[in-house]
């Protein structure tokens, strides 16, 4: 927000200034046609309303949407989108969603057998802290090596400072699988 000082022209003898408050103009949504299915917006061929920044910075550069002129009228639409093709795209989107759900359920089933993951680290003399920390990458590699479970590291959340375990003992680690949340205990022991 900025302020502008303007001299008042109503009284010639005294120079009175007025403070005029200016505020930023918020741009209205624009209409765009989706070239590809976009999560949270719609399917290919649909006309949706989005913020100009989203279109300018994300949708247009990724060729996921095209601009529509201001005088767009849906009744005068020249390009008729084949309803069979739209139905096929909807079915493909449903199949992808079902496959992701099945994959998440299988991963949750596999994770039920994992109660504790053990790591050994060198200990700083006179304290409970370790020289090396246990990172999310270490947990991903251990799950893959010992249990043959593939988990994306973005789905693992360590509840300690910096996302690393730097002390001996048992620590709870949260795994987000789809909409489900499960916890695994990570035990850090001193090296012999």
TrEMBL record:
<protein>
    <recommendedName>
        <fullName>50S ribosomal protein L9, chloroplastic</fullName>
    </recommendedName>
</protein>
<dbReference type="GO" id="GO:0006412">
    <property type="term" value="P:translation"/>
</dbReference>
<feature type="coiled-coil region">
    <location>
        <begin position="76"/>
        <end position="103"/>
    </location>
</feature>
<dbReference type="InterPro" id="IPR036791">
    <property type="entry name" value="Ribosomal_bL9_C_sf"/>
</dbReference>
<dbReference type="InterPro" id="IPR009027">
    <property type="entry name" value="Ribosomal_bL9/RNase_H1_N"/>
</dbReference>
<keyword id="KW-0687">Ribonucleoprotein</keyword>
<dbReference type="InterPro" id="IPR020070">
    <property type="entry name" value="Ribosomal_bL9_N"/>
</dbReference>
<dbReference type="InterPro" id="IPR036935">
    <property type="entry name" value="Ribosomal_bL9_N_sf"/>
</dbReference>
<dbReference type="GO" id="GO:1990904">
    <property type="term" value="C:ribonucleoprotein complex"/>
</dbReference>
<keyword id="KW-0699">rRNA-binding</keyword>
<dbReference type="Pfam" id="PF03948">
    <property type="entry name" value="Ribosomal_L9_C"/>
</dbReference>
<keyword id="KW-0694">RNA-binding</keyword>
<dbReference type="GO" id="GO:0019843">
    <property type="term" value="F:rRNA binding"/>
</dbReference>
<dbReference type="InterPro" id="IPR000244">
    <property type="entry name" value="Ribosomal_bL9"/>
</dbReference>
<dbReference type="InterPro" id="IPR020069">
    <property type="entry name" value="Ribosomal_bL9_C"/>
</dbReference>
<dbReference type="Pfam" id="PF01281">
    <property type="entry name" value="Ribosomal_L9_N"/>
</dbReference>
<feature type="domain" description="Large ribosomal subunit protein bL9 C-terminal">
    <location>
        <begin position="105"/>
        <end position="189"/>
    </location>
</feature>
<dbReference type="InterPro" id="IPR020594">
    <property type="entry name" value="Ribosomal_bL9_bac/chp"/>
</dbReference>
<keyword id="KW-0175">Coiled coil</keyword>
<comment type="similarity">
    <text>Belongs to the bacterial ribosomal protein bL9 family.</text>
</comment>
<dbReference type="GO" id="GO:0005840">
    <property type="term" value="C:ribosome"/>
</dbReference>
<feature type="domain" description="Ribosomal protein L9">
    <location>
        <begin position="30"/>
        <end position="70"/>
    </location>
</feature>
<dbReference type="GO" id="GO:0003735">
    <property type="term" value="F:structural constituent of ribosome"/>
</dbReference>
<keyword id="KW-0689">Ribosomal protein</keyword>
